[in-house]
Design a protein that fits this description.
alpha+beta; Glutaredoxin; Glutathione S-transferase Yfyf (Class Pi), Chain A, domain 2; 2 domains; 11 helices; 8% strand; globular
Length: 224
């Protein structure tokens, strides 16, 4: 496998950041292509050729196109022969990772990104979200964080003592929670400690900082 890997991302996209972090942590070389999601970059004819579903992240690896963050992480782990702890070969340990990745889509991500989409993205296109819908998503987010807080009261990382691709996927989602008024330290201390643990790794910390959550949180508060 050569190094002709292209990754289409946006720095505020949580799934994009998980893929970038995994590559950086494992020394995987790639060409980063930033897609401007706020000015219609996903809907251009050029990008539709890359992904007709108009979503990021996307990778092109030797002319093979692959979408969906979790599929990409699994693929890169298999093709780049990364350390086993990221996505364990043991069936039981691997199932723990898969279980969290599947849970993530309809729980944590739905609760967090679902709110961000309605509070930030939809108004940019003149669409007013329903307040009741936002409240339901907020409830889902807090239930998700409560579940994670319980797990992380037992484990150092989400599935045990070692970091996995589940920690990356869920970690970058949690990084965005201040944008929807979540105070991790006071309500979910185990999640907050886990996030600090992730940020001790320079590759993860750099990408999290580049997301600009702190600056965007202040901007949102200034508008209220």
């Amino acid at each position: 496998m050569d190094d002709s890997l292209k990754i289409y991302v946006n720095k505020v996209s949580q799934p994009s950041c998980a893929v970038l972090a995994f590559c950086d942590l494992n020394g995987i070389k790639y060409e980063r292509i930033e897609v401007d999601i706020y000015s219609g970059g996903l809907m251009t004819e050029e990008f539709r050729k890359v992904n007709p579903l108009m979503q990021i992240p996307v990778i092109i690896d030797n002319e093979y196109n692959l979408t969906e963050c979790h599929a990409i992480l699994r693929y890169l782990h298999a093709t780049r022969k990364c350390d086993d702890h990221w996505y364990p070969s043991d069936p039981v340990e691997r199932s723990k990772v898969d279980q969290l990745l599947d849970w993530h889509h309809t729980n944590l991500r739905q609760g967090c990104y679902g709110q961000l989409k309605r509070k930030i993205i939809m108004p940019l296109f003149g669409i007013e979200p329903r307040e009741e819908e936002i409240k339901d998503l907020q409830k889902l987010l807090h239930l998700s964080l409560k579940f994670m807080n319980k797990i992380l009261g037992i484990n150092k990382f989400l599935t045990g003592e070692n970091i996995t691709i589940a920690d990356l996927s869920l970690g970058f989602e949690v990084q965005s929670t201040p944008l929807v008024d979540v105070d991790l330290a006071s309500k979910y201390p185990n999640v907050a400690k886990w996030m600090n643990r992730l940020k001790e790794t320079p590759e993860i910390n750099t990408i999290m900082k580049d997301m600009g959550v702190e600056k965007n949180t202040e901007r949102m508060k200034a508008k209220i």
